[in-house]
Amino acid sequence: MRAVCFIVAALVMSCYGHKTDSGSCTPKLENALFEDLLSMMLKIKGIQKGTNQHDETFSAFAASLTASKTLGSGEIVKFDKVWTNINSDYDPSTGVYTAPKPGVYQFSCSVMTKYNKVVRVLLWKNDMKTVAVYPGSPGYNTGTINMVLELKKGDKVYIKQGANDKDIYSESAYNYSMFSGYLIR
Ligand SMILES: *[C@@H]1O[C@H](CO)[C@@H](O)[C@H](O)[C@H]1NC(C)=O
């Protein structure tokens, strides 16, 4: 790619120089030449990527819980304080992240228990459980999920309560429980 750019630059420059000398390289030819080379370069770039289209969609989100909660059975945790939501693929009103395009995605989640209580949450992909954390008592305890998933466009990822362990801790001054994710590529 760098070499092609260099050739184009060299051609344009030599053409320019030529024109001032003898006038044989007209601006019209110069432009046509430049456009041909530009479209050739774009085609080469497209083939290398395996596509002719440039999809620059990026997606990333992070959200935390503003308050402690006793979760309902199988409740999806709605991390309500949104820190980052590039491309708006995370919906804080449902707690669900929807993949905007096929790709490899990274997700993280940390949950803290209420004092001397237990919480169990799982990272779900559509209707499938993936991995879980189960921080227990005594005291306050935190569990963390780190996961990489290959998703199709429209796949849904969320954090859902499991079994009988429902006491999640957070507070607005210290955002102990959070969920985040982003498109790697
Ligand atoms: C948690 O988030 C709030 C804003 O919602 C912020 O004021 C506070 O400093 C954060 N706490 C920590 C420990 O980062």
TrEMBL record:
Keyword Secreted appears in the UniProt entry: yes
This protein's UniProt keywords: Collagen, Secreted, Signal
Signal peptide: 1-17
Residues covered by the C1q domain: 54-185
GO cellular component: extracellular region
Cellular location(s): Secreted
Transmembrane residue ranges: none
Keyword Secreted: yes
InterPro entries: C1q_dom, Collagen/C1q_domain, Tumour_necrosis_fac-like_dom
Protein's name in the database: C1QL
Source organism of this protein record: Mytilus coruscus (Sea mussel)
